[in-house]
Amino acid sequence: MSRVPSAPSSPAAPPPSRSARTRERILKVSLDLFNAQGEANVTTGHIADELNISPGNLYYHFRNKDEIIQHLFADFEKAIDVGPGEIGDAAHVMEDMWLYLHLMFERIWQYRFLYRNLDDLVMRDAKLRSHFNIIVGHKREAVKQLCDALVGVNAMRANEDEIRALADNILVVATYWLNFEHLRAKPVGKFSREEPDAEQHLSRGVYQVMSLVKPFLLGEAREHLQHLMDNYSE
To answer: How does DSSP classify residue 4?
Structure first.
């Protein structure tokens, strides 16, 4: 019996160069420091000290802190570029929507320094402002399409103006939820506040968004959402 020749294996990708590894380390440590201490409180000197490298070595890879932020934002832009799945039956659509929103809040939490200092960052960098508005525009359209689909399967009752307003309200909550949580957190020092538990933060954010959606839902979709919200409250 003849044998089918196996496809030639692809050559293994070469390991990243030392320079590439250093760049990745700089970005990872910068993200950790920005998230923990706030971007405004972290200098390139702090980043170099944390990495145990010289400032000159850091500047070889990134000219300044703003360039580091631009690279981190590009990573965030790729991570957040996820759309909701197709609408199925009304009984399960709320669970899919809840999971999608949870994923979005996870991405925001992963790059939370961008949101906590958003106004200052977009004022300093016009390109970042433009790209953030593109992200917001895409998410607004995704929410509107999701709502239109819910209306189409008789799981939601809302007109075009109501859907537009609902999409904007959802984006306002998603964009400023971190700042609201931070404002309510207990002070732990003169200049810092208690960091919220990540899972609780994500669940509360999703719960708040779904609370905006609930008044427009009908039948099984509304009942299933209420079930999800009751489980969260327990």
So the answer is: P
